[in-house]
Amino acid sequence: MIDAQSSSGIVVADGLIKQFGRFAALRGVTAQFAAGKLYVIVGDNGAGKTTFLRTVAGLAPQTHGKISVLGSSKIKNVRAQIGYMAHPSLLYDEMTGIENLSYFAGLYGLPLSRCREVMAAVKLDPDLERPIGQYSQGMRQRMSLARAILNDPKLLLLDEPFSNVDLRSAHEMVGLLAQMRDRGKTLFVVTHQPGLLESIADEFVWMEAGKITRRTPHLQVPQ
Amino acid sequence: MRRGFTLLALATALLLSFALYEALIAAPTEQTMGDVQRIFYYHVPSAWTAFVLFLINFVSSIVYLIRRNPKADILALVSAEVGVVFCTVVIVTGPIWARPVWGIWWAPGDIRLTTTLVLWLIYISYLILRRMSTGGRTPVIAAVVAIFGALDVPLVYFSIWFFRTQHPSPVIGGGGSLDPRMAHVLLINWAAFLCLAWLLSWVRCELEVATRRVDEAQALESLRESSR
Amino acid sequence: MSFFAITRATLAKDIRLEWRSKDAINAMLFFGLLVVVIFSFAFDPTAEESRRIAGGLIWVAFLFAAVVALNQTWARELRNQVLDAYRVSPAAANPLFLAKALGNFIFVCVLEALMTPLFIAFYKLRALGPAWELAPIALLGTWALVINGTFFAAISLRTRSREIMLPLLLFPISIPALLGMVNATTAVLSGEESAWFWIALLLAYDVVFTTVSLLLFELVLEAE
């Protein structure tokens, strides 16, 4: 079966402009991304990487231009299939890991067993009584990833997943991401440490001043 | 476009001068209140004009939420701004009239004056919100607040209506019928004020369109600079 | 998951978080106490006078205390940007709004329950009219403050200096509700006239603004 997604791409952006008052964060992004691949988005601070991710997630609707995600231009309709991990943790500091996840699982209509499953997947103990606020940075990032993959999303958007994470945890997370890609998921990873993903990335997407300037199969230093 | 504007400006100037003559000289002097009653020719048309503008604000806010057309947002902003100007005229002229006629500056039980005051407060807070909100989200939340404000008006009216029946106040009722000559002057003044409101809104709209165009260009330009 | 299940889960989550952190409740209760005490110094009426002005005093005090509480509504959702986690989920916007409004309602009711006996003690209040009518007045009046307060607190999130923005938006719109609460309370305390017109007005206000809030909240949540 050939559906619209596989023929035209899982994320299709056409002339995306996102303007915040007197500042434009995206300045005409036109690109197609195929399903089942792992894309790494790289670029300087303020290049529009986070805004692009938020636009794809439906959090920051574009000012001009068109976007279609998972075959739908109304991102609201496909939210159940999108996972989003932001730079902040998106978790309640005063609740334990499993309390956080069970609240969010409720929003997706998922059972408690799924929460234990994803906590195990990111190598965290579901029975840990500590509130998230007392987790180490690495544990919190993994917890944040657990929340993002709670609904087993077809499209996973990750913003700086490795910041402040020790090398061992980072490699574990990379392994998990590779597994997800191999199961046919599409991943977008914004990171300042693209080297970590060199071995598993399908494509590197370079952003500069609100535009995608080049797409390369390997991480190479741009001239 | 330019010609239409010049014509409107001329018509407004003529109408306003004619209305001024009519109100101050041609209209008959009111028997009990005397000349102070003439402020009525400014007070009432300003109120009507402000209400028309607030109605435009309400309608264009709804239109914006449905169509997401920036023009509707600009119209909402401009009608609220000009409406507040006319509403201010109402609130200033009201007490000037009330003091010699009723013997007090402000009648808290007077339904029309108090409703207008609440309206004025609501639209000022609307304009402050527009000023304070950040990023590209201003039009949506402003439109939402405009709808809340407009729906509040009938509730304000009824609450003050009942408040008044409890607290008797020196309100002159609408009992006496208006002298046809006075009604005539009143309508001429209203026409002049509507033209003035239209003219002001026109200028303000053009200014807003230009401001937004500059902002948008600057937004894109600033990024190009930073990329170098 | 259904509308009410999400509302319940969100409300339970908020109460649990408040219970653990006690961010707002302690400060708020103390604030309520302070308002009553300061009012008692500022106004020192006879029993007869106090019956006439108490309706106004009580509700203005509640309004101030409520604004401080309402400003905390969304603070928890802003820390770590948790609100985004809700926004990317398929859950509808309204259960979140309703949960927040109910949470604030409970919160402000607790506050009022604490402040009312103090007012009665300081002002030697005794109702001459049917005192049971104060219950629907308090419930409807509190909901009137809370429903718009929760909504405008969400709007203020999208502005600079949001703490000051909330009262600027809330007070003008609340004027008819405030007239309703104050006059209904005074009517009951003085026993001179019926409070039912004002109760009907409060009911109309509550119905209108609950409906509009539920219709428009999604637009506010999605605005960015």
Overall mean pLDDT of chain C stands at 90
Number of DSSP strand runs of chain A? 9
Q: How many structurally independent domains of chain C? A: 1
Overall mean pLDDT of chain A stands at 90
Please state how the strands of the largest beta sheet of chain A are arranged side by side. Answer: 5-6-7-3-8-9
Number of helices of chain A: 6
Q: How large is the radius of gyration of chain C?
A: 18 Å
Low-confidence stretches of chain A: 1-6
Distance between the termini of chain A: 42 Å
Task: Please tell me about this protein's structure.
The complex is a heterotrimer of chains A (223), B (228) and C (224). With 223 residues, chain A is of the alpha/beta class. Helix content of chain A is 28%, strand content 26%. Chain A has helices at residues 4-8, 49-56, 97-108, 112-121, 137-148, 167-182, and strands at residues 11-20, 23-33, 38-43, 64-69, 82-85, 155-159, 186-190, 203-208, 211-216. In chain A, the strands form 2 sheets. Chain A has a 6-stranded mixed sheet with strand order 5-6-7-3-8-9. In chain A, strands 2-1-4 form a 3-stranded antiparallel sheet, with helices on one face. In chain A, helix 3 crosses helix 4. Chain A is globular. The N and C termini of chain A lie far apart (42 Å). Chain B has one domain (2-26, 38-168, 178-222). Chain B is built from 6 helices and no strands. In chain B, helix 2 (40-67) packs across helix 6, helix 3 packs across helix 6 (180-227) and helix 4 runs antiparallel to helix 5 (138-166). The two termini of chain B are 41 Å apart. Chain B is globular and about 65 Å long. With 228 residues, chain B is mainly α. Helices cover 81% and strands 0% of the residues of chain B. Mean pLDDT of chain B is 86; it is low at 169-175. Chain C contains 9 helices and no strands. Chains in contact: A-B, A-C, B-C. The B-C interface holds B 65, 118, 121-122, 124-125, 128-129, 132-137, 140-141, 144-145, 147-149, 151-152, 155-156, 158-160, 162-163, 166 and C 148, 151-152, 155, 158-161, 165, 168-169, 171-173, 175-177, 179-180, 183, 193, 197-198, 201, 204-205, 208-209, 212, 216, 219-220, 223-224.
Descriptors for this entry?
heterotrimer, B: 228 residues, mainly alpha, 0% strand, C: 224 residues, 9 helices, 82% helix
Quick description:
The complex is a heterotrimer of chains A (223), B (228) and C (224). With 223 residues, chain A is of the alpha/beta class. In chain A, 28% of the residues lie in helices and 26% in strands.
